[in-house]
Design brief:
By secondary structure, the chain is an alpha+beta fold. It has 2 helices and 8 strands.
Length: 183
């Protein structure tokens, strides 16, 4: 009888663990881009090596990326971005950790407008942020698209006065992240 109880407990634990595992979605090659528009110059860059995970059981989401993974059309812009503005040697990562507010069943195919509330960490500064987006699910894979603004001053990113007119104070950020169900 005791042995049957232990076997049943182990099988129940494995079933719960398997169910929890099936509710995790992971992305390793997500894309985040940003755009700065000013009358003097437009600046844009993209990173295609963004890591992210969604736990559909808890609605938690985490996104992380290396600052140096942003690619610019102009190498000098990329160098200035990493060395002078984002100081990527000192602050190599940017991240978001939060929770999706809406109760959505991501195992069910559909398009879901969502809002994630959490904390963004950029340039060593953590700030609360709310991000609106859309999740498209086919039942086993997800695509998350979002667009939001980042105010440079909020993350203590200083822009020298000599180039201030070339860099917007508010940067438009877009994400496009494909998730697969973790097995």
């Amino acid at each position: 009888m005791k042995r049957l109880f232990i076997v049943t407990l182990l099988m129940s634990t494995m079933a719960v663990f398997h169910t929890a595992q099936a509710q995790l979605y992971q992305a390793q090659n997500g894309e985040i881009s940003f755009f700065s528009k000013t009358p003097l110059e437009n600046i844009e860059a993209v990173s295609k090596t963004v890591n992210s995970i969604i736990n559909s059981a808890t609605n938690e989401i985490a996104v992380q990326m290396r600052i140096t993974s942003f690619v610019f059309p102009n190498k000098l812009m990329q160098e200035h971005f990493n060395e002078n503005y984002l100081e990527s040697e000192k602050y190599p990562m940017a991240s978001f950790k939060g929770k999706i507010k809406e109760a959505v069943d991501l195992k069910k195919a559909g398009t879901y407008p969502v809002t994630a509330s959490g904390t963004a960490t950029i340039h060593g500064v953590s700030k609360p942020i709310e991000i609106k987006g859309t999740i498209v699910s086919d039942g086993s894979q997800l695509q998350l698209n979002s667009q939001f603004d980042i105010r440079l001053q909020d993350y203590q990113i200083d822009i020298p006065k000599i180039v201030f007119a070339k860099i917007a104070e508010v940067i438009e950020v877009k994400s496009k992240i494909q998730f697969g169900q973790m097995k």
